[in-house]
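Minimal example, chain plus magnesium ion.
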Amino acid sequence: MSKTVALIVAAGKGERAGGGVPKQYRRLGPKPILVHAYDRLASHPAVHDVVLVVAPGEEERAQEVLARRKPLAIVTGGATRRESVRNGLEAIGATDRVLIHDAARPLVPGSVIDRLIDALRSADGAVPVLPVADTIAEAGPVLGPVVDRSSLLRVQTPQAFRFEAMLAAHRAWTGDEPTDDAQMVRIAGHEVAIVAGDPMLDKITVPEDFAIMEARLGDRTFRTGMGFDVHRLADGEELWLGGIRVPHSQGLLGHSDADVALHALTDAILGAIAAGDIGQHFPPSDPQWRGAPSSRFLEHAAALVQAAGGRIEHVDLTIICEAPKIGPHRDAIRARIADLLRLSLDRVSVKATTTERLGFTGRGEGIAAQAVATVSLYEAHP
Ligand code: MG
């Protein structure tokens, strides 16, 4: 299977966009610009890894805004964009294809990535382009003659290349600073295909661009998911509830650590983004989940929300059992869930109830849990 690595260049100073910090670290809707680009690329099924190139001294800030996302590498950029890309390429080592992208274009449509990768089947490089709609005239102290715009194209990123061709072009480069990577590959004698670009890929350059891009992010909508789970109590098992170990005479039976509370919560989050259920993501028949900590399931669901460009707003969990008493552990469970989901405590609710000694929970045969999760998503529209 051929491999694609995305290389995001985020090494610029981005001062024209204002705000006192480089624009790639400024927030656009739910997250920093750089993280938009990262998530769009990293969540594309054809992209295996992401390498990020940042300005010297920004490595820590970059990892901080990426939170738990794990790039293949965070590389220190050079004095020019070309040097920055070169550093990133050298850090990739080996791959079949590379997508080179500027972080200042946060909204990367998956359809453009599809077209680029498809075009690489018959070319060494591919770029997304758009026609020029405005009249273009030569600059001067007064208006110069009109340039024939039918012969012009706006070239965007990401740009896709066969990795070896791109790396060789960079290593051999002796010319002036190129404006993009496609020109380097083209000048090295390779064919660069053009595919349809997308206005969503416009670059953020000046402060006004933020408002335009926020509008393109679309309307923020809220979705709610629910989850429910039951596990049987048995002797000789550890009891895991809400991500913590609770001292009790019995524990829950299950393939993983059987944390019924985290299972209900995971299903609630998956439900909010219509991403199936926990059994589809972590089949009980798969031996790798034997005894697995359910925190991994919950973190996976949270990562899916992130990849969809969403944010978990609130979760509400109810644990249903006669014993143990949940009250003494409630704060620890809340704190643990807040930590796993990277939420503030006021967004995590943990409740407990009994069933008045009725039914299986009342007889102490098992523990049930139900959960509700609210997620906000930006519905992108061009
Ligand atoms: Mg379960």
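Residues 260-272 form the longest helix (13 residues). The chain has twelve helices and 19 strands.
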